[in-house]
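Example record

One chain of 403 residues, shown exactly as stored in the release files.
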Amino acid sequence: MITPVLPTYARADLEFERGEGPWLITATGERYLDFGAGIAVNAFGHAHPHLVAALNEQAQKVWHTSNIYRIPGQERLARRLVEATFADTVFFTNSGAEALECAIKMARKFHAAGGVPERYELITMEGAFHGRTLATIAAGGQQKYLEGFGPAMPGFPQVPFGDLKALKAAIGPATAGVLIEPIQGEGGIRVIPSEDLRRIRDLCDETGILLVLDEVQTGMGRTGKLFAHELAGVTPDIMAIAKALGGGFPVGACLATEAAARGMTAGTHGSTFGGNPLAMAVANAVLDLALDQGFLPHVRALGLKLKQKLAMLADQHPRIIESVRGEGLMLGLKCRVPNTELVQALRMEHMLTVGAGDNVVRLLPPLTIEEAHLDDAMERLSRACTAIEAAMGAPAGKSGAGS
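Predicted structure tokens for this chain:
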């Protein structure tokens, strides 16, 4: 199909007309179980009535004014995020990459305001993904994203994933902080163990540098905690969030302590669209749902059940699935066949998933799914694995797979 859209995406030949909860529906009425959730964006599924109502109500008032003026919804959302987290202050953006840009600038400005502008480097880990801007692809350090865009922006030395000895050795006079994802999403649902995250926090404190967390994918309840760093009992100095914060509406945020934000004075950063009234109305509605007292326990319970079911699936189809990894409802299947084969086989079963690095298939369902949806998903996963085994000429999985 000829299209005027820039061909930067290898899109599936599939389109949807509407959504209902965890389902996406084509124009011809075919229903797909959505275990990708727009890459961890649609935390409350599709067309959630509370979010629809908030959007419709605000759309009839004012959409945009710019940050020349005060925006009540912005101040309300910032206050609620501060009350629910480690942070003292919040800057609103349109995306995760922009939230990371703010975090990077803030970390550098912190040291400049303290009289040591030479401390500008942020140490990152291999396999990271922090966005698609020139700064964030440099931070991610992946050659496939850097190639062809000229010299990589300096300031992002990288160490092997999980190598704390290398991380400690990399800290020097130019180091401003450490920038990491508590769980690498694009990198393959690779979890930084809680004890390692606590040690990294200690290293930052010992050396006077900042801990900057990318919780764009892990945040807003995805792991069973409001933010993944809570699993380790640590707090960052700066944190970037987005994706589920808008439940499908483009919005991100950079949260920080008052101390870490000391250099971000009037005129040091800005955004035309960031935090506009329409985005804030939706994000405040998302927070209504995320802060409900039953929400996080539901995610934890469903996440545990899904992980147990997936472990059984891996036992039943050992030639397809090597292992299960992740936390809450941010889970990954480490594959023995190319992960693209499992993604495609699941699509044939009308189940949507997302590929990731390290040959992993990500399972990122809406956080509002019920146990019946898990059972449905397991049946589709079992059939997909069996279909791949049949194509390989391999023995089918053990009897009872997916039941």
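Notes: The longest strand covers residues 321-327.
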